[in-house]
């Protein structure tokens, strides 16, 4: 065996890199660059970082759009004050991602990041974004993808806390249209989704109360309302049965 062959054999063989590993590496590389810029970059402003993410958020490549949504989540966690400053830009990008026509990963990442950001800004000054987010999130509550359903229930429950007076009437109508989904997914095949649904059901319960103008609820209606509250907390499966059979 020649000297060249011995040298070749003595060197460690290169490890094969699978497609998922390359994907994870590129994602982590991108996020680490964003994180580094947020912490140490002095020459370029944060606005430039947003410009890069905005460009990638609308890129034809769904992987780049996915990384952009995750990058916005990283920003929200590391520099919440700065994100508040560019709130409208960030929300516009995330809502655009929420309606992604191709990638469920982009939609999922958008929901997760929206949940983070809405918590940071406490739902303040959402404007018409509240309507866009609510409408799309509601459609995802029945999605076949377990991860999408889980994140949708978390986000929808959060929206219930931030509806306020301005969007109360609108959100009430949305909750009533979502009532069947809330009842069905109390026993979702995925335990995490079922738990998230129960939490969201409690958050949305005030919007399920029917208020009658210029009249008071009858004693029977008051009893039914109290019973629904108790069942939703302790026996959601029984409440689902009662609703399905129109007993309540």
Protein described:
The protein is mainly alpha-helical. It is 72% helix and 0% strand. The chain has 13 helices and no strands. Helix 8 runs parallel beside helix 10 and helix 12 packs across helix 13. The longest helix is centred in the first third of the chain and has 22 residues. The radius of gyration is 24 Å and the shape is globular. The N and C termini lie far apart (86 Å).
Q: What attributes does this structure have?
A:
single chain, mainly alpha, 72% helix, 0% strand, disordered N terminus
Strand content: under 5%
What is the rounded Rg? 24 Å
Assign the structural class, choosing from mainly alpha, mainly beta, alpha/beta, alpha+beta, or little secondary structure: mainly alpha
Residues in helix, %: over 70%
Q: Count every beta strand, where a strand is a DSSP E run of 2 or more residues.
A: 0
Mean pLDDT score? 76
Looking at the structure, what is the overall shape? globular
